[in-house]
Amino acid sequence: MPTMLNDLYQMLDPVAFALGPLVVRWYGLAYIFGFALAAFIIWRVARHWQLDFDGDAVVTVMLCVIVGIIVGARLGYCLFYGDGYYLAHPLEILAFSNGGMSFHGGLIGALAAGILASKLTQVPYLTLADLGVIGGSIGLFFGRCANFVNGELWGAPTDLPWGVVFGGAAGTVARHPSQLYEGILEGIVIFVVLILLARRLPPRPRGTFTGMFLVMYGCFRFLVEFVREPDVQLGYLAGGWLTMGMVLSVPLIIAGAVLLVWATKRKLPQEGIATATQDPLQ
Question: What is the pTM of this model?
Answer without folding.
Answer: 0.89
